[in-house]
Write a structure and sequence with these properties.
heterodimer, A: Rossmann fold, 10 strands, 15% strand, globular, B: Cytochrome-c3 Hydrogenase, chain B, four-stranded antiparallel β-sheet, three-stranded antiparallel β-sheet, 16 helices, disordered N terminus
Chain lengths: 241, 482
């Protein structure tokens, strides 16, 4: 018992007091800033997921590998801003010169304001997004303080949070889990793989037909999405941003 | 400065195919003399390669696909071959006759059975009922299916069926320039970025005969990854037996460790850190000092939390004697990492196939092979790695170059790269096609061989101990499924 108390005391207070405003290590690559005169074609050649298009940088494809910013820091830099979620696929495209993502319009019905239950499905995720989703509910980030919980049964869920690019072998299981969630239900895509297929968009072992039928209400970029990105995104759809 | 020992990421001349008989005889001979299969696989050249190894010795040989696509199975005599023979059958239709159970591994596109059509083992006894779990599990984890044959509350048999995570990753490694595949390699298993990343970098460097910089930063990141993964497992193990304080403290300590990795490279998982030729981000003096203080503080906290945890009698009553793997089985099945070391088998690539010199490194083992042994050993390895981290931080020269130029690959070379990741021995082996790309590339994650251990450990246990046993092995789904 004394051991226990000693360990506990030595540990101190670990919770982040306010995960919505806390600062993060400047080494963290968050929301990028694209120079107004950035050569998008040149950057696209470097990019492993071809996230650069004529319109700008698609944060839904970006894996934050930093290849572009290390080679051309004059064209692109990654700021440590971890708030980079969007409520539509189009809003994830960051134009040159743009310094913030558009405001989110989507807000959940009021009954979910203090209670929102998630059923997580990993469909060929590499376990990085899965671990970050798990970490969102550890003592540091503690997403349950906002009333967000992950539940075991889809019958108890309000939303499905998807990680991974959806392998052909998981396509059925994902669909069945989704069908088992009662209405009203919401779909959340977490990480580059879930949003766009990421590095696996072209793989024949991937089957993304599910996303042709169902539209997500929230997109959380990252490779993996950082717990602070996840927490702030969830709170913004629950409370409005 | 750590020196690399190129002899254990050897670049080999393409080996000349031998006859099937001499291939099988040589395999049997080596296997009876303490060699373990590190890899056995087919390639589109219509060759079967076997890579066998024992400490400081590797042997690679190959044979053409047998005429009638049949050969006598090795698995009954040497069970460590069972998974490789199944893989070979699934990918190339080559049948090992008399294999104990030629079940599918990961259901790839060209495989003989679709995952939806797979038929699980059944029992016709009226005393047996079935429990199916997954692929979608109760928590936030990767998918896989566990099918239990139960006699009351006792597990008679556990069948593990994987493949849900299959992304066709190794074929993607062969499309386009190999040196540019780092982001893809980082997703082999997103929790073993540095383990697989180091194996990949060393392999490409070996194929191009280049000598990398910043080995000490790579070694530092590798040990930090080990500490983080072991902490994550200890946290989950504590959670599984409702020892909530251990669950929370170890999770918070893992946060400190992975946030330190983030301060080096920007990613909590070490993504972005490595590149062929070295590393992407230097460590300056201030960062080195901060890391030293943080890791020192972590060591003290981990020690006090672990001492408290391993003194808890309610926790020990769940850990002790649960999910046992005998040392004879660990050896016969060729288990690796904690799964072998906790059963008294001292296998560790840092000692057996060192890519760097590890002064005074001694492989730690536990004898009992149960959940307790695997948990305790993780704690012991954490403390050993934290010690190594301090030494590495003392060695790192902030002004040393961090990248060497990347050279072209030498065509038609085979290279092998072996790294001890948090889960055990990671093997990468590839053959270059031309100056840029690979003809074939194989990844053998330690979990591929270790999943069998979980199935064996729960046989005869209560089903309520399954989550605990599962977590004690901490195996990767995507690393196996690729």
């Amino acid at each position: 018992m004394l051991h226990l108390l000693k360990a506990r005391l030595r540990h101190g207070y670990q919770a982040i007091p306010d995960p919505l405003t806390v600062g993060i290590d400047p080494a963290f690559p968050g929301l990028p800033e694209l120079a107004i005169d950035a050569d998008l074609e040149l950057l696209s050649e470097l990019c492993p997921t071809k996230a650069f298009t004529a319109q700008g940088l698609d944060l839904g494809r970006c894996v934050f590998c930093g290849l572009c910013s290390r080679k051309h820091p004059e064209m692109i830099t990654f700021t440590p801003n971890y708030k980079m979620a969007a409520d539509s696929r189009e809003k994830l495209i960051l134009a040159p010169g743009q310094i913030a993502l558009p405001k989110m319009d989507f807000v959940l019905p009021r009954k979910f304001r203090y209670s929102f239950a998630l059923r997580s499905v990993s469909a060929a995720g590499c376990n990085a997004c899965e671990m970050e989703l798990g970490a969102s509910n550890n003592v540091n980030f503690d997403i349950s303080r906002y009333g967000v919980e992950t539940v075991a049964s889809p019958r108890h869920a309000d939303a499905l949070i998807l990680t991974g690019p959806i392998s052909r072998n998981m396509a059925d299981a994902l669909n069945e889990t989704w069908q088992a969630i009662p209405e009203p239900k919401y779909l959340i895509l977490c990480g580059a793989c879930a949003i766009s297929g990421g590095l696996f968009g072209e793989s024949e072992a991937i089957d993304r037909a599910f996303l042709k039928h169902w539209e997500a209400c929230l997109y959380i970029p990252g490779c993996p999405a950082h717990p602070l990105s996840i927490v702030s995104a969830m709170v913004s759809i629950m409370r409005g941003s | 400065m750590l020196k690399t020992d190129l002899s254990f990421t050897p670049a080999l001349e393409p080996v000349q195919p031998v006859t099937l008989d001499s291939f099988l005889n040589r395999t049997r001979e080596l296997a009876t003399h303490g060699f373990q299969p590190l890899a056995l696989f087919g390639t589109d050249e219509k060759l079967i390669y076997a890579l066998l190894g024992k400490p400081h010795e590797l042997e690679l040989f190959c044979t053409p696909f047998p005429q009638n696509l049949h050969y006598p199975s090795l698995s009954r005599e040497f069970p460590s071959f069972q998974i490789f023979e199944r893989e070979l059958y699934e990918e190339y239709g080559i049948i090992p006759t008399n294999h104990p159970w030629l079940k599918s591994v990961r259901h790839p596109l060209q495989g003989p059975v679709k995952i939806e059509d797979y038929v699980f083992l059944k029992s016709d006894s009226k005393l047996i009922h079935e429990v199916g779990v997954g692929p979608v599990h109760a928590g936030v984890i990767e998918p896989g299916h566990f099918r239990f044959l139960m006699r009351g509350e006792i597990v008679e048999h556990l069948e593990i069926q994987l493949g849900y995570q299959h992304r066709d990753l190794i074929n993607m490694l062969c499309e386009g320039p190999l040196a540019g595949k780092m982001p893809l390699v980082e997703t082999i298993a997103g929790d073993t970025v540095i383990g697989h990343g180091t194996a990949f970098c060393r392999l490409v460097e070996s194929l191009s005969e280049s000598s990398p910089q910043a080995n000490d930063i790579r070694a530092l990141l590798l040990e930090m990854e080990r500490v983080a993964m072991h902490l994550s497992t200890l946290s989950a193990l504590a959670g599984d037996v409702a020892y909530i304080m251990g669950q929370n403290l170890f999770a918070a300590l893992r946060t400190t460790v992975i946030n330190s990795t983030l301060s080096i490279c920007g990613s909590r998982f070490g993504k972005r850190a490595l590149c062929v030729g070295g590393v992407n981000y230097p460590l300056n003096k201030t960062l080195i000092d901060t890391l030293k203080t943080k890791m020192q503080k972590c060591a003290v906290q981990i020690q006090s939390t672990s001492e408290a945890m391993f003194a808890s009698s309610s926790l020990l009553s769940r850990f002790d004697d649960t999910g046992k793997i005998s040392s004879a089985d660990a050896l016969r099945f060729g288990f690796t990492g904690i799964s072998a070391k906790a059963s008294g088998i001292a296998v560790d690539a840092r000692a057996d196939f060192p890519i760097w010199q590890y002064p005074d490194f001694a492989v730690q083992t536990e004898a009992t092979g149960d959940v307790y042994a695997r948990a305790k050993l993780r704690y012991m390895e954490i403390m050993q790695s934290l010690q190594m981290i301090q030494e590495l931080l003392d060695q790192i020269d902030p002004s040393a170059p961090i990248q060497a130029p990347v050279k072209e690959l030498i065509p038609d070379k085979i290279a092998v790269s072996i790294v001890e990741g948090a889960r055990g021995r990671i093997v990468h082996i590839a053959k270059s096609k031309d100056e840029h790309s690979a003809l074939w590339y194989r990844v053998i994650d330690p979990s591929l061989v270790n999943w069998q251990a979980l199935s064996m450990a729960v046989a005869g246990e209560q089903i309520s101990d399954f989550p605990l046993c599962n977590k004690s092995f901490d195996l990767s789904y995507c690393g196996s499924d690729l």
